[in-house]
Amino acid sequence: MKLRSEIEDKYKWNLKDIYKSENDFKLDFEKYKEMSKKIESFKGKLNDINTFYEYLKFEDELDFIGGKVGLYVFLKRDEDISNSKNVEMLNMVSSFQNKVSALTSFVEPEILKFSSKYLKQIYADKRFEPYKIAIDDIVRSKAHILDDKTEKLLTKVGEFAGGFSDVYDNMESVDLTYDSFKYKGKVYEVTPGSYSVLRESKIREIRKKSYENMYKAFKNFSNVIATNYIYNVKADWFFAKEHNYESCLDAEFEGRNLNKNIYYNLIKNVDNNLNLAHEYFKILKNQSKLEDFTVYDIYAPLVKYDRTFSVEESKEIVMSALSVLGEDYLKVLKEGLESGWIDYFETKGKATGGYKVSVYGTHPYILLNYEPNYTSLSTLAHELGHACHSYFGYKNNPISTADENLFVAEISSTTNELLLLKYMIKNAKNKQEKLFYLNKFVNDFYATIFTQTMYSKFEVFAHEKIENDESLSKDMLCDYYGKLVESFHGKAVVPHEYSKYAWLRVPHFYRCYYVYKYSTSYAVASFVANKIWDNKDDMLNKYKKFLSAGSKYYPKDVLKIIDVDLEKDDVYNVAFAELKWALDEIKKLTKNNH
Length: 594
Prior knowledge:
Layout: H1 22-36, H2 49-79, H3 84-103, H4 107-112, H5 116-124, H6 132-140, H7 148-161, H8 163-175, E1 181-183, E2 186-188, H9 192-198, H10 204-220, H11 222-242, H12 248-255, H13 261-272, H14 274-288, H15 311-321, H16 327-338, E3 342-343, E4 355-357, E5 365-367, H17 374-395, H18 409-426, H19 431-467, H20 474-489, H21 516-533, H22 539-547, H23 555-561, H24 570-589
Parallel strand pairs: 3-5
Antiparallel strand pairs: 1-2, 4-5
Helix pairs in contact: 1-2, 2-3, 8-11, 11-19, 13-19, 14-24, 15-18, 16-17, 17-18, 18-19, 18-21, 19-20, 19-21, 19-24, 21-24
């Protein structure tokens, strides 16, 4: 593996765009610490409208400088996690930012004491326009915020009640051991990292052994993991109930000012289209020519296609594929690709995976660990979607409303992925290449909309059992999940004895009602990409407004900009029509094998 010093500068992000030198960072950090001393001077004085406004402006300034110093040390750490100096710098800044957070803890309780008359005065004052939603969020949550003593107690409880996720993480990454296996003399190590590659092997025995060795490990620890999860669900319900919510699902949706009908509408639409998932697996079974086609066969490649993509090729393809988004978008895209936004290659000590991170006052930064394959090309397009979303949000909003709401954050990145796939399908040079991209589209669709919705149904089952004071056990969870697997795969896929244990491997279950957002975001992105690609309904102009909206509106109102109402079926009708089109294309290209 190369050292960072061996990588050309053009393939590394440029942190000098944040601070020219480490000394400049230190000066800003000292300024940040000095500014924070002013926080307490506002305590007990927010009931004066001019003082309250002065505080909000001051908080913006503090967030601006705090964001920059935090971003700088975070990126420095991820350049080389083994560098103790970088780690110490990040810990130092993070620790101080926690102190700042504690110093500002008086703000929310004071706002909750504002009279209706005073709130009306604030809402009528144009100076407070950028802060209205943040204030309203606090006021709206009044029924769910308890007295100071109880809130402090619940915070302390949360310090250990949130540990069920840590227990799972440590068990999965440290304590669980996975048997290796031999195939034709070669030893294959099964790990959480290698499994995603092994399950896509062209060789069935490798798929079978990797699947069985992975889930045997989870089955062996199923009693411990299931008990840990059940207590995690009980903790979810404890906090929701103590904060006066009728259910954990209510806590998720009321907190976002959304209607929980969104959740049930997602499930309804996916259930109504399970036949398309079943059709896909029938195609895969027919292609495989296996009578006992089972769960470890569903990720086998439909077609052999091993094209490689250099970074420079990927840049060109991304620019071409996303040209449908217009000149202003392409201008930002080009800047991102060429001007020190992206750290491309894996180097010794560098953080793994990929992400986009940004703060107000700097351009976005993207971390990649690029490999010359389509997955990395798609990841590049995905992270650039996030980056451009942040860029337009920052350009068109003050710091208080610049960041997009997390509920809509995945739409921009997934829209880019889908536009890239449409471009690759359209420009495929032969049947084999076209089948590869169509299969990629259907695989992603299934993994994101169908699978995440299956997870969402599982969460409802588990939480409602606890909320209704009913018993919940490992066997009940495994049996219910096994039935879900059979329902979502259909008759073409033979269940495996380990299928019902697969839920034990889902870390997102420790984030209450989180996974549904992947499904809704993918459906919206499919809706948007379809209309932009076909130049329908003036969607491009609406989408640009969506990208520029930041968080100055609630998520449901941001979605209205692009004609989306997730309580209705329109988005899902378009998304599932896209899936049906892709399946029809695959059937045409494989018709001789049916």
